[in-house]
Amino acid sequence: MKAKISLNTNDFEVDFSEGNDISIPLNFNGEQPNTYGVDRAISSPYQDGQFIGDTRKGGPCNFETYSFTPHCNGTHTECIGHITDERISVLSSLKDEMIPSTLVSITPKNTTENYTPKLNKEDLVITKQDLETQLSGVNSEFLKGIIIRTNPNSEKKKSRDYMQETPSFFSIEAMEYLVSLGVQHLLVDTPSVDRLFDDGHLSAHNIFWETKGKDLNPNTQNKTITEMIFVPDSLEDGAYLLNLQIPAFVSDAAPSRPILYKINEL
Fold first, then answer.
1. With a threshold of 0.90, does the pTM exceed it?
2. What is the mean pLDDT of the chain?
3. Check: CATH 3.50.30.50 for 2-25+75-265?
């Protein structure tokens, strides 16, 4: 199904039958990524007296209970409520349905750029320098969403234990640069935009949402961060239309399914 869309004075074509899912499927009781060593995502048949929700065990239907931690068990989208005292939900924050976006590939590296707390010599960082190189000349219409694929881009990201393999994160300058571009929706294939153990500073999160302490900034309430995506190498860097799908969870974060549609200028 092809459609023509207009962004300001430019017309584009998009094929909605050719969506590219960049989420990591949450395989309950199977292989899955994990952060902070939390309990694995599991499903189990509901049981009450003689009733069991498993047809293989004599039940009339399959009727399961799920247990998982969205921030740590797979692809998820979070809102400003992740870091504020005020309980803001991702359901109320995500207002955009179709988001003009740009996919870029970045190789994290050692850097002289800054972070709080100070960088360790082994830290691999997504830098402002590399973001500027990749985003130079990009149509400003396609800066509303930024999708970052980090290299090397192994399929192991779909089941990686991040307590065993330390992930990269954003320098202060890199996140300030994205904010200066007006990015509203940031998607990354790492488990956090911050260092996993950062003494609770959450520097990159606070820069993105322009917050101080744990106070709500109403001006950035509709911005989102999506973490633990996986972008296959078959998708080229460039312009896309992003459909960021979440369930109707009244919570600071929810599992998500970002879909990318290639877009062509007419």
1. yes
2. 96
3. yes
